[in-house]
Amino acid sequence: MSSPSAATGTTPQSTTRGAPEGPAARVSRLFLPLIAVCTAVTAANIYLAAPLLPLIAHDFGSTPSAVAWLASIAQLGYAAGLLFFAPLGDSVNRRRLVGVLALVAAAALVAGAASAGTGALAAAVLVASAATVVPQLLVPLVAERAPADRRARHVAAVVAGLFTGVVAARVLGGLAGQAFGWRSVFVGAAVLTAVLGLATAYVLPVERPRRRGPLFAGLAALPGVVRHSPDLWRACVRQAGMYGAWSALWTSLALLLAGDDGYGMTTAAAGLFGLFGLAASVVAPLAGGLVDRFGAAKVVRSAYLVAAVSVPLFWLGGQVMAALCAAAVLVHAALVASHVANQTLALTTTSAPATANTAYVVSGFAGGALASALAGPAYGHWGWGGVCAVAGVWLVLGWAVTAVRRER
């Protein structure tokens, strides 16, 4: 197993001040920065299609609302990948698994760029998203090695990278798609995924084989782990509600911004709206400190209140751009605060952190994928108000279902 210094990115105690650093010390310094950057790139892959929907629809002779389901396919693929691959973090060598998954994701993205129709593109997006689970293989290691009184801050650092990737997918993806076409965006994402995935695998600590029992024993243990931990169950359901509300709004936003019945922006201009998502990267470290100080439950309650305020603002934003901007900041702040709190709880509430983290993240992305799948038809039938209604329902369900069990 690695030493704490390998996970936290600090120089080993044996390194003297002013002495030349050896290869191991240099690698340890790269560990956390590479995890953050790799997290950003892989998270961007999941949302790569969302800002490009108008361009994809035009290329395939369809309408943006008719291809909106591609965004939910990406989230379902990620949830499936988490279900099968993330529990392996408790049993197999992470270095090899991270490298293989990075190459598979890159190959699928290249296949997506070469696709001739929505069916082939959906299959490629599904495979790429399923292989894009590298951050969730690594975050349990980060949490395990972090000091107890700073664990949420360490998790927040990884979460900040994740949401930076979400912003990059919308902003840079929209700009690059407008300039070079959506297929070039997929190829560029493939190159970044391969390079950063292999680099991250290289700096991971060498681990002894830890496999006990069947390879997918962690997958079989998921129901029991959730059933015996009320705190984990509550974190899973609440994040599914929060993530579903955010996902319905954020994956459908390009339809409002670029649509003729909306603001009529270009794909590049609509992509720049994603800069409001930087609020998440700013809030993540603050949320980590609040969780360490006040506990996860209080932070999640506050996040739900902020999200509840953002939904009517989003509805008003269908006609008033200022309201849409304010709502985008609020919903990202709510999502990231809830995520830091709930994921910290998930990672510390059982003796199998990788399995618990899998249950948590799969629940969140499953909730997000289902909400996204409903948001597209809702926009087609009822416009932007229908999307806001889906988001509101998800928030109500996420809180009401968990309210029947008392918190610890």
Write the layout of secondary structure elements.
Layout (H helix, E strand, L loop, with lengths): L3 H5 L14 H24 L6 H7 L9 H17 L8 H20 L4 H14 L2 H12 L5 H30 L1 H22 L13 H11 L2 H29 L8 H6 L5 H17 L1 H21 L4 H28 L4 H30 L1 H19 L6
Helix pairs in contact: 2-8, 2-9, 4-6, 4-16, 5-6, 5-9, 7-8, 7-16, 8-9, 8-13, 8-15, 10-16, 11-14, 11-15, 11-16, 11-17, 13-14, 13-15, 14-15, 14-17, 15-16, 16-17
Write structural notes for this entry.
By secondary structure, the protein is an all-alpha fold. It has 17 helices and no strands. Helix 2 (23-46) runs antiparallel to helix 9 (182-203), helix 10 (217-227) crosses helix 16 and helix 11 packs parallel to helix 14 (296-316).
Count of alpha/pi helices: 17
Compute the CA-based radius of gyration.
20 Å
The level of helicity is over 70%
Mean pLDDT across residues = 81
Query: Order of helices and strands, N to C?
Result: HHHHHHHHHHHHHHHHH
- State the end-to-end distance: 33 Å
Classify the secondary structure makeup into a structural class: mainly alpha
Low-confidence blocks of residues: 1-20
Biggest sheet features: none
Query: Could you say which overall geometry the principal axes of the C-alpha atoms support?
Result: globular
Number-wise, the strands total 0
Strand content: under 5%
